[in-house]
Amino acid sequence: MKPVADHAMPPRLIINADDFGLTRGINRAIAELYRAGALTSTTLMATGPAFDDAVALAQTLPGLGVGCHVVLVDGTPASLPSEIPTLLGSDKRTFRLTLGSFVRDLLLGRIDQAEIACEALAQIRHLQQAGIRVTHADTHKHTHLFPTVARPLIEVLEQTGIRTLRNPFEPEFARRVSPSPLLRRAQIAVLNRFQPAFLRLAQNARTTQGSLGVAATGTLDAPTLRRLLQSLPHEGTFELVCHPGYNDADLGRVRTRLRAHRETEYHALLSEIPRALTLPNPPRLIHYGELS
After folding, report:
1. DSSP-H helix ranges across 63-146
2. Which residues contact 204 (CB under 8 A, 6 or more apart)?
3. What are phi and psi of 40, to 5 degrees?
4. Do the Cβ atoms of 103 and 72 come closer than 8 Å?
5. In Å, what is the CA distance from 31 to each residue of 59, 203, 247?
6. What is the pLDDT of residue 258?
7. 41 has which bridge partners?
């Protein structure tokens, strides 16, 4: 893995919104934040209900980095069900509904890595065939922090000519300033044990030195975002993970634990990112396509 530390330069920050393509309200919020200079990147769900709307919007925003938000849990596959049987839930048509059931079966060896590769390739190809220049990849619910997901995903990225992916692990300086329940902190501490394996697998990829906002998912308001931005080191390259959107009727029809809070994140980004850019040594905002 080649995280870029920009010596004698300000820190670089990718502000990435997940779930592009989930609803038209999420798409609209992402476009508005990009136009306001408060967001640089997003990841698109290949089978999201508002995929076509997201693609049309992206074509009007050529400076917005668009990656693939690879979904392996709580969603609909891009592959034929017969091609990925071990990835499917009890209905044999869609993925497992919960992250817990996915992780359990992953760790028990019930999920075929070849099927993960098949599905990741189908989702990335779907974006590329729609005219999206895919800047990078990440995964819904950060499933690629597990080596058995990261390995086939990285192989697919090499196959499709994509060299960049999210480093899903959050640096300690960011976790310290993020309000999160004790249970979530304990879960993150356990999951961080997979970081050395991820770094070894991703040693030839381009990525960041970590993702901010992971521990704060569901609690990322303006004060928390301000603390995260203030905690940035004087150099290095990082990603801020966020989930802005509008809590509208479309959102009410899809499965997501983030509803009203999406608007909280939207307003936090809209107020805090421009403010941070006026401070001494402000971060340089980039997207994944600008990593080198």
Report:
1. 99-107, 113-129
2. 1, 2
3. -120, -15
4. no
5. 11, 33, 16
6. 85
7. 16, 65
Q: Are 217 and 243 in contact (CB under 8 A)?
A: yes
Helix (H, G, I), strand (E, B) or coil at 125: helix
- Which amino acid belongs to residue 48? G
Q: Beta strand 134-139 with 65-70: parallel, antiparallel or unpaired?
A: parallel
Separation of alpha carbons 250 and 26, rounded Å: 9
Q: Which two tokens stand for residue 41?
A: 């990147």
CA 162/CA 6 separation, integer angstroms = 22
Q: Burial, 129: exposed, middle or buried (Cβ in 10 Å; 0-12, 13-18, 19+)?
A: exposed
Per-residue pLDDT of 94-144, as tens digits, reads 999 999 999 999 999 999 999 999 999 999 999 999 999 999 999 999 999
CA–CA separation, 68 and 164 (whole Å): 11
Q: Rounded to whole angstroms, how far apart are CA atoms 39 and 15?
A: 5
The encoded tokens of residue 177 equal 């300033």
- The answer to whether the pTM exceeds 0.85 is yes
